[in-house]
């Protein structure tokens, strides 16, 4: 046990001396900064590099993984590697010790492995946002070092054309598509939002299936993956049943509402006036209106006739004193004044005609 403890301490010290996870953290921080400039500020970003083949490709690829949800699907991830790394001219043969010719250690650099490790860090924090598992990453990494396929056997497209690799070798992508189901993540739920992972040192973990490979652990992991897949299949079945029950419930509720509407419509039809009733009501209203207008006119005519008759009586009998009611005070002041004037005139004339006594 002491030996194992010392071996573990030695391994951890060696891992720390490589500063590998400092590179992982720095790469993710830089990619997040570029993604924020692109999405938040809508700015153009230039990614510099000594040759444009290592850091440039790494940061460009990680930024697309953060912003573009299509790269989190199997087809999108393969297209990203083809577009950015193979067509971009990454020297796989020199960097990963390919098989076409021997190379010295001087040109070796684990840049592509750093990219895969950063992708795994994203997958660990957003497990449901990726359609593929890390099994796909492990397979691709293996074929960058030793492969029966010609996908990673050249330093550039010019070299691929020189060796005519497209005709002389098979493509790794065709093989991956033939066993696609092995790489599907059973927990996948498509997420169209951008990913903003935590890059604190506590959240940067060791990729155990890459750096601590153990066949027993792989078998256990495979067993767990099978169980997880079965559970998710049951979950999908229960969701389908729940959806069918919900549809049935909504259908019954809709029928109940329609029945209530029909009942309410029947009651309203009983109380709704028919066209004949509406016509009769209209005629009755017009008759009542005309009757009211006739009564008003007759009352006005009667009042006018009474006033004229009263005025004639006053003219015929000047000495008769007429008492007016409050209702007549507004219409008869002129007539009363006229009768009083006539009475005065008559009295004056009589006085003038009387003979004087001798």
Alpha-beta content class: mainly alpha
Distance from first to last alpha carbon: 178 Å
Q: What's the multimeric state? A: single chain
Please give the count of helices: 14
Query: What is Rg?
Result: 53 Å
What is the H-and-E element order?
HHHHHHHHHHHHHH
Shape type: elongated
Please give the number of β-strands. 0
Sheet-strand content, in percent, reads: under 5%
Largest sheet: none
Proportion of residues in helical segments: 55-70%
Ranges with pLDDT <50 over ≥5 residues?
A: 320-358
Q: Taking all residues together, what is the mean pLDDT? A: 78
Provide a short characterization of the protein structure:
With 358 residues, the chain is mainly alpha-helical. The chain has 14 helices and no strands.
Structure report:
- The protein is mainly α and 358 residues long.
- It is built from 14 helices and no strands.
- It has helices at residues 2-18, 20-39, 55-67, 74-86, 92-95, 111-125, 134-145, 157-163, 165-168, 172-178, 208-211, 215-271, 275-316, 333-353.
- The longest helix is centred in the last third of the chain and has 57 residues, at 215-271.
- The radius of gyration is 53 Å and the shape is elongated.
- The protein starts with a helix and ends in a 5-residue tail after the last helix.
- The model is unreliable at 320-358 (pLDDT under 50).
């Amino acid at each position: 046990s002491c030996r194992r403890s010392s071996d573990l301490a030695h391994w951890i010290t060696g891992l720390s001396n490589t500063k590998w996870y400092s590179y992982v953290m720095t790469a993710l921080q830089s990619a997040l900064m570029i993604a924020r400039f692109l999405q938040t500020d809508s700015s153009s970003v230039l990614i510099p590099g000594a040759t444009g083949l290592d850091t440039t490709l790494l940061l460009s690829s990680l930024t697309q993984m953060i912003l573009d949800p299509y790269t989190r699907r199997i087809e999108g991830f393969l297209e990203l590697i083809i577009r950015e790394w193979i067509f971009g001219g990454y020297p796989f043969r020199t960097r990963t010790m390919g098989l076409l010719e021997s190379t010295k250690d001087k040109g070796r650099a684990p840049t592509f492995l750093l990219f895969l490790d950063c992708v795994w860090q994203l997958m660990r924090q957003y497990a449901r946002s990726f359609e593929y598992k890390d099994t796909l990453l492990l397979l691709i990494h293996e074929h960058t070092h030793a492969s029966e396929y010609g996908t990673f056997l050249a330093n550039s497209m010019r070299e691929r054309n020189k060796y005519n690799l497209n005709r002389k070798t098979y493509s790794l992508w065709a093989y991956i598509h033939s066993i696609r189901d092995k790489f599907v993540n059973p927990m996948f739920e498509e997420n169209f939002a951008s990913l903003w992972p935590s890059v604190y040192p506590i959240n940067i973990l060791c990729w155990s299936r890459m750096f601590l490979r153990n066949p027993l652990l792989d078998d256990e992991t495979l067993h767990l993956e099978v169980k997880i897949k079965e559970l998710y299949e049951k979950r999908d079945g229960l969701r389908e049943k729940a959806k069918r029950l919900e549809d049935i419930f909504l259908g019954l509720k809709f029928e109940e509402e329609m029945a209530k509407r029909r009942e309410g419509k029947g009651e309203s039809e009983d109380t709704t006036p028919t066209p004949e009733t509406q016509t009769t009501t209209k005629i009755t209203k017009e008759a009542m209106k005309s009757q009211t207008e006739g009564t008003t006119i007759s009352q006005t005519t009667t009042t006018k006739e009474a006033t004229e008759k009263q005025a004639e009586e006053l003219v015929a009998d000047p000495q008769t004193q007429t008492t007016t009611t409050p209702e007549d005070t507004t219409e008869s002041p002129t007539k009363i004044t006229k009768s009083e004037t006539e009475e005065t005139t008559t009295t004056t004339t009589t006085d003038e005609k009387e003979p004087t006594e001798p």
